[in-house]
């Protein structure tokens, strides 16, 4: 969790002195991370309970997005940030544009 919610500095080996990666998500509070998931169309799976282990802060939360699937990088292009303007475009049947694919999506 510490690495996932880091303040932008990598915690892995070989990254000393490296600045934040512009392709990575950065948050300092778990609520901010969940808010970002929701903005990109990820929804919490109701009733899904992970295993609680001794010393663990709680069960796992499971979020799902139909366009986020293993071995399907082509679907990532369909994940859009659901801003008010984008929701209005979708409701009107218009296309929602996104950024150019990153080097990982090509």
Automatic annotation (TrEMBL):
Superkingdom of source: Eukaryota
Keyword DNA-binding found: yes
Keywords: DNA-binding, Nucleus
Name of a matching Pfam family: HSF_DNA-bind
Protein location: Nucleus
GO cellular component: nucleus
Region of interest called Disordered, as start-end residue ranges on this chain: 1-25
Segments forming domain HSF-type DNA-binding: 24-81
GO molecular function: DNA-binding transcription factor activity; sequence-specific DNA binding
Assigned protein family: Belongs to the HSF family.
Database matches in PANTHER family: HEAT SHOCK TRANSCRIPTION FACTOR (PTHR10015), HSF-TYPE DNA-BINDING DOMAIN-CONTAINING PROTEIN (PTHR10015:SF465)
Protein name: HSF5 protein
Native organism: Setophaga kirtlandii (Kirtland's warbler)
Source organism phylogeny: Eukaryota, Metazoa, Chordata, Craniata, Vertebrata
